[in-house]
C-alpha cells in the first residue's frame, strides 16, 4: 500500500510549445538568447492560391512570338487523316476509340490545331494505313517485315 501515495505527483511529460508559439517572435528571440541553432526559411507565396500561376515564360508562349511558338500539325497531314478515316468509313469518334485517344484529339489533328506527338501520329498511321510523317505523306503504310 506504500506505493499509492496520494501526496506525490509524477509528471510524465511536459508539453512543448505549440507550432504557433514556437514560430512567434518572442520564442525566436528567446531561442537566440539561449544560443540555440535556428533555421529560418521564407515560404514563397504562402497562404495564397497560386497553383495555376502564369509565369513570364507561359505568357510569352501564349503570345507566340517568332522565336517562341509551338509547332502545329500541318494542314496537309490533317487532310490526309480525314481522307484516310473517311475511306475506312470511320467517324472521328470511331478512330479515337480505335487508337485509345479522345475524339477531341482527332479533331485537333485534322484541323491543324494539335501539337504533333509521335506516339499519337504512329497510332493514327497504323489505324488508317497511311503515312503521316516523313517526305511521302499520304502514301500507303508498308508493313515492315518482322525481325527473326
From TrEMBL:
Keywords: DNA-binding, Transcription, Transcription regulation. One of its GO terms (molecular function) is DNA binding. Gene3D superfamilies: lambda repressor-like DNA-binding domains. Signal peptide: none annotated. GO terms for cellular component: nucleus. Residues 81-135 form the HTH cro/C1-type domain. It is found in: Nucleus. InterPro entries: Cro/C1-type_HTH (IPR001387), Lambda_DNA-bd_dom_sf (IPR010982), MBF1_N (IPR013729). Residues 46-55 have a biased composition (Polar residues). It comes from the Eukaryota. The keyword Manganese does not apply. Residues 16-55 are annotated as: Disordered. Residues 33-42 have a biased composition (Basic and acidic residues). PROSITE patterns: HTH_CROC1. This is Endothelial differentiation-related factor 1. It comes from Acanthochromis polyacanthus (spiny chromis).
